[in-house]
Amino acid sequence: MTAVRELDGSEAGGQFVRTALTLSVLENEPVRIEHIRGNRPNPGLAHQHLAVLETMAELCDAEVSGAELGAETVTFDPALEATAGATGWNGQDRGQLPGGEYAVDIGTAGSMTLLFDTLLPLTSVLDSQLSVTVTGGTDVKWSPPLDYFRHVKLPLLRRVGLTAACDVDRRGFYPDGGGRATLHLAPSSLGSIDLVERGPLEDARLYSVESASLADRDVAHRQAEGALERLALEERGLECSERREATVTSPSPGSAIVLRLDHGTGIAGFSALGERGTPAERVGEDAANAANRFLEAADEPASPVDRHLADQLLVFLALEGGQLRVPAVSDHVATSCALLEAFGAVVDVDDTPNETALVTVESTVDA
């Protein structure tokens, strides 16, 4: 029997738990996570973390203990059927994950995009198509809005071989959530990631959404106008090649905007959520301000991805090896790199103070 890998989450948040579960399945290795979300005011599993744990357990018929709200210690054993020919960091054959159709109800406005993020890397060990329909929050604080996931992250990952699509039935804003979307994954042969140079800005796209209850105030349109005025693309010799303004059904009033910037081989995304008392134009300006800071950063060489993608791509970087230049070694990046190393990955971070950092990870596979 494979020894249980002991992990300490006392200095990390929910991302640590999600990534640890993903790596456990990819490496077909049992884990015990202690002091979950230990540095948070309310430590232990919250609704969205519990939903991720239960979903991962159901997908691979894992043995689990601690699957309850507030739990600060969890054990998870995927025990997948081994597949000969692809060996992970731990030296044993990686597992094979069956596909199927599943439904998950987070039960709150907890983020479904964070759950989707946990599932995406599993394409590399799938043996048939997997579809997971999730009910919860689509556009909520502390997580990527749904349009960021669909129009920024997925397009970039498709470039390295990911086969995935996301269908949206209903949006779910805070506090009621109630959104519903389905992530479709197919077995994928992922290539290595090589995102080192930014290159010139080539394109910009905009996605602005409002709940039907806000349509009479033209919130989506005003968000878009505020963003484009502040972004001033014409001064950069560009136009917005895609502009989508949508009115959607949702149990709660809400709005969101996402800007996507394409440059060379990289994609970067910037977003903002509507808040009560904040003019819609200001929401759009907030997203554009983040995009402008990214474009005008003095760091050379510049990162080809935004700070959120920088962290989210590290697991994919490890699967087939490669290099990724990140805007900075944030706490999330540092935590993810340390977690990869805890599983036995060889990670190198070339970090110069006040500059971008180059992260290199060797492939997991000895095929």
UniProtKB/TrEMBL annotation:
It is found in: Cytoplasm. One of its GO terms (biological process) is RNA processing. GO terms for molecular function: ATP binding; RNA-3'-phosphate cyclase activity. The keyword Transferase does not apply. Residues 11-345 form the RNA 3'-terminal phosphate cyclase domain. Belongs to the RNA 3'-terminal cyclase family. Type 1 subfamily. This is RNA 3'-terminal phosphate cyclase. It comes from Natronorubrum bangense JCM 10635. The lineage of its organism: Archaea, Methanobacteriati, Methanobacteriota, Stenosarchaea group, Halobacteria. The gene is rtcA.
